[in-house]
Amino acid sequence: MTISTYSTFEIATKTGSFSGWNVTVKNAFGDVVGFLSRDQEFQVVDAAKAFIDAYVVPSALPLAEDPDPEPSGVPGVVRLWFRSNGVTMVTDGAGAEHELHVDSFAGIGVSRVISGPVVLSTPVLQEWTDISGFDHIVVEDPYGRISGDVAGGCLVVNAHPQAEGLYEANWRGSWQVSGGADKDVILDVMVVLATPLVLEDASNPGTVVVTRTAHGFHEETAMVIAGETGNTAINGSWVLANVTTNTFELRDLGGTLATGTGSFVGDGGITKIGRAGTTVRTVVRDGTPASASGRASGLLGSGDKACLEYAVLNNPPRPLELFSLSIDLLRIGGPTS
User: Fold this and answer.
1) pLDDT tens-digit profile of 39-48?
2) Which of 104, 128, 134, 168 would give a disulfide with 237, using CB separation of 3.0 to 4.6 Å?
3) CATH number of 104-198+268-333
4) Do residues 292 and 171 make contact, with C-beta atoms less than 8 angstroms apart?
5) How far apart are CA 334 and CA 164, in angstroms?
């Protein structure tokens, strides 16, 4: 049996009548740390030992929710408690309150409003293309989980004990095209996977049906497949169509379903993947700056990269000219969120 104050304690013995100090309280090591009276007043014998079981008991740690009064300071002791708005609080030995969190944040940007736009390289028609050439880091993650790759235009999840988790990416920018007609452009945050996702089959002939058991993808998920040497029709930039639990079809960025070209080998895989429903479509005009923004979230692991990419949908493809652009990445939860 346990009682909850701002930690957990084993009720070791119950003595005598319901008057005075009648319950001996021990920690996980069997040390007597205090006594409990019938009116639930707790007399501390050893404050240091009283809270040590919060770290060693291999079970869920119950925290007081919205305690009234809020815990006061005890020299040499840190008290954990919880607010019903979802914030875990720490009261230090001096009685000061602090929010406890494990979020991390990093961002990179480019700005050329005064000196002129940054001209990107000419993209391949209807292919996802990296936006690179960022010129500064907006903010660095103090926990070392995320770093900004300015040259590559991506935010990288580092090898860190708490790297894997649920992340949210936000981007915003302003751009134009020049020397030609307006262009239909799509933009999205793509995850460049440290380890490509293996595919099990890709049918041929006819419309390609790709198999990956319990893949978890949704309609309109953006992805890039590369490296398949047999049924090479599956290599390229796609959005998913006709998705089932274990299969999906591939629709190119112009709207055409892929058709098979050979026997599946399985030496390729999914190298980049987006998030269903986060692709932004906009018209980029000749000589007239336009702006757009977007947001996506998903689970990332060590070595994965979050990159803002774009594709031009109508001929002839022309490069974007960036006036400003920024992308940031925020860790908002653990790997099971």
Assistant:
1) 445 555 555 5
2) 128
3) 2.60.120.40
4) no
5) 7
- Per the model's pLDDT, the better-predicted residue between 120 and 304 turns out to be 304
Spatial separation of the C-alpha atoms in residues 127 and 186, rounded to whole Å: 10
Q: At 40, phi and psi to the nearest 5? A: 65, 20
In angstroms, the CA 286 to CA 131 distance is: 19
Instruction: Identify the bridge partners of residue 85 per DSSP, sorted by sequence position.
Output: none
Beta-bridged to residue 294, according to DSSP, are 171
What confidence tier does 68 reach under pLDDT thresholds 50, 70, 90?
confident
Which residue type is seen at 244? T
* Residue 216 CB neighbours (<10 A): 8
87 three-state secondary structure: coil
Cα separation, 268 vs 115, in Å, equals 43
Q: Tokens for 17? A: 């009548």
Residues 6+ apart with CB under 8 A from 20: 37
CB atoms closer than 10 angstroms to residue 288: 11
pLDDT at 163: 80
Confidence band of 65 (pLDDT split at 50, 70, 90): confident
Asked if 193 and 270 touch (Cβ cutoff 8 Å), the reply is yes
Distance CA 13, CA 22 (A): 8
The residues spanned by each domain of the chain are: 2-100, 104-198+268-333
Alpha helices in 28-86 (DSSP H): 47-50, 53-56
User: How would you class 3 by CB atoms within 10 Å of its CB: exposed for 0-12, middle for 13-18, buried for 19 or more?
Assistant: middle
